[in-house]
């Protein structure tokens, strides 16, 4: 059980994919749908395409290019943003996300979306889900020039949207990102155990972890 003292939290920083939204959409896109389109265009098997795409993406994991749809459009010679929209029916909120965001507003907490998502994909997901209505600010790492895995992102975020690290809660599903936030000094960190609803729940020991947001709303 994770217990938060909400009286000591002013700002809530929230990741998007795997935290507010089900990571199944992105996993399916990168592991299945995009390789399928690449295979069709290049006349190779799906397995060959999956191997090639995985090799290219793994080489850049944790960098801004890894998250950049325009970079992958150039690298793969495909209209990646257009292909991204072909499976938009898979975009979905994680359990209790809407209630959690409404509760933050009711508690007068400042809620900021801080995401590595490329602006093209980010805007698409906001159009589909409407979660931006509950957020005070939306910040993409592409606007700051550093991925969240770098402590430089957090320094840049502080300059753009000042916050008190001691009175901030940050929720993410990425352990490397949470590590950078801890290095920067954010006091309250939470990890999501099951970012992809169709994958098993993870055992998380490095950070306090929850399955769903309803686990922390009871501590208001």
Automatic annotation (TrEMBL):
A GO molecular-function descriptor: 5'-nucleotidase activity
SUPFAM superfamilies in the cross-refs: HAD-like (SSF56784)
Entry's Gene Ontology cellular component terms: cytosol
Source species, domain of life: Bacteria
Keywords of this entry: Hydrolase
EC number: 3.1.3.5
Matches recorded under InterPro entries: HAD-like_hydrolase_sf (IPR050155), HAD-like_sf (IPR036412), HAD-SF_hydro_IA (IPR006439), HAD_sf (IPR023214)
Extent of the signal sequence: none
GO biological process, one term: DNA repair
NCBIfam families: HAD-SF-IA-v3, PRK14988.1
PANTHER family reported for this sequence: GMP_IMP NUCLEOTIDASE YRFG, PHOSPHOGLYCOLATE PHOSPHATASE
Protein name as catalogued: GMP/IMP nucleotidase
Organism for this UniProt entry: Microbulbifer pacificus
Originating gene: yrfG
